[in-house]
Amino acid sequence: MTYDFAMLTSDQWSDEQFRQFLESSNISDWLKQCLLLATDLDPNDVANEAEILRTILSIRATKLTFRALSP
Q1: CB of 22 within 8 A of CB of 32?
Q2: Are residues 35 and 56 in the same domain?
Q3: In 24-42, which residue ranges form alpha helices assigned H by DSSP?
Q4: Are residues 47 and 67 in the same domain?
Q5: Exposed/middle/buried for 46, CB within 10 Å: 0-12, 13-18, 19+?
Q6: CA 51 from chain center: how many Å?
Q7: Residues 46, 27 within the same domain
Q8: pLDDT score recorded for residue 6
Q9: What is the rounded CA–CA span in Å between residue 20 and residue 14?
Q10: pLDDT digit string (tens) for 28-65?
């Protein structure tokens, strides 16, 4: 089953949609695990930490790309 990512922008995110998202074959196992662990945490804390993770990974990806393209 593939997941329709357009649902992520919906204001009507339901428990059923969350379940379908977790069952989707195109969602990585590590992301599924993170989401399951996050359900027991404060959603604002999780969102803030996800932003930190995004920043760190973006910086790392940029550095690796520049390194790969350097002569």
Answers
A1: yes
A2: no
A3: 29-38
A4: yes
A5: middle
A6: 10
A7: no
A8: 67
A9: 10
A10: 999 999 999 999 999 999 999 999 999 999 999 999 99
User: What is the per-residue burial (b if ≥16 Cβ within 10 Å, else e) of 47-58?
Assistant: eeeeeeeeeeee
Q: Do residues 33 and 47 both lie within one domain?
A: no
Both 31 and 48 in one domain: the answer is: no
CA distance 48 to 60: 19
| CA geometry: angle 27, 25, 57, nearest 5 deg | 20
Same domain, 36 and 58: no
Domain with 57 in it? 42-71
- Taking residue 21's Cβ as centre, other Cβ atoms within 10 Å add up to 18
